[in-house]
Amino acid sequence: PTGKEGDVPRQLRLVREALEEGTAAAFATHVLAFVNAWQAERDQMETNEIFVDDELMKSLAAAISDPELSWYALKLGCLMARADANSLSLLRAGGVGAVLETLKADWPDESSSRVEVALALLQNVAYSSDGVTAILHTGGVSVVLGVMKEHADAVSVQKNGLGVLWNLCDSDEHWAAFLAEGPVMAAVLLATMQHHPDDRRIEESVIDMLWDISSTGEGQAHILSAGGVPPILHVMRNGHQDGEFQKKALSMNSRCNGRCN
Q1: pLDDT of the residue at 108
Q2: 102: Cα within 13 Å, side-chain hemisphere
Q3: Which residues contact 25 (CB under 8 A, 6 or more apart)?
Q4: What is the dihedral angle through the alpha carbons of 9, 13, 15, 17, rounded to the nearest 10 degrees?
Q5: How far, in Å, CA of 91 to CA of 105, rounded?
Q6: What is the spatial distance between Cα 128 and Cα 167, in angstroms, rounded to a whole number?
Q7: CA torsion 153→112→43→128, rounded to 10°?
Q8: Contacts of 7 (CB under 8 A, 6+ apart)
Q9: Quick count: other Cβ atoms within 10 Å of Cβ 21?
Q10: Helix 112-125 and helix 95-104: axis angle, to 10°?
């Protein structure tokens, strides 16, 4: 590789060396330099093998739990996990468990920024079936719902949390995990929509997932228990969305009303 790509091995080597030496300041500097250089061209991570680095991903999985390194490890991991090989390395090193523990931890400097990037990393990992399985088998749905509830006003946290949940829907196992949360799942989704009433992307994601959930009697019961009918009717009356959105909202409302009758 030449030009900008030719510098990638050196950039990643500097990050690895900073981790090995335990120098937090150098690690932060090199991570930010790499992220700033490649964030706008992140699609290259998916196709260019020059970004694949098994050893670095294993080290990042460990660094995620370190208070001084965590945010930078999450940020770099999120970017590099767009490559399937890197995502698999992170999974094998226990990266999903580390991210979920980070989300559950009571950080002294807790802010929505750390949560936002941690969810973005999970969203990328959940593009693969192995990633979905790892998240579901480690209680990831409950953790994601918990941080969405805690950071209800942070729009990026809500969008990334919805992104994780949506990617999990590709698995047959997601039904059991979603329904196991009971009305909490429906309540968090509805609260997200109500906290951000003018965000079309959030409305679409919430209605799509609630519509899926409402396809079972148990799911309908959860939506009703969470008081879901009035908010659904409200977004329908706003009329901001397209016909498909309206059809799903109407169908879900009919299902829930049918259960009441």
Answers
A1: 62
A2: 33
A3: none
A4: 180
A5: 20
A6: 9
A7: -90
A8: none
A9: 10
A10: 150
Interval 42-67: pLDDT, tens:
999 999 999 999 999 999 999 999 98
Q: Which two tokens stand for residue 256?
A: 């829930």
pLDDT value, residue 162: 96
Residue 261 reports pLDDT greater than 60: no
Measured CA to CA, the distance from residue 123 to residue 30 in angstroms comes to 24
Q: Which residue has the tokens 């009717």?
A: 233
Measured in residues, the chain has a length of 261
Structure tokens at 244: 């498909």
pLDDT value for 110: 61
| More reliable by pLDDT, 109 or 139 | 139
Global pTM reads 0.90
Q: Give residue 1's pLDDT.
A: 60
Q: Determine the Cα–Cα distance for residues 214 and 220; give it in Å rounded to an integer.
A: 5
At residue 82, what is the residue type?
R
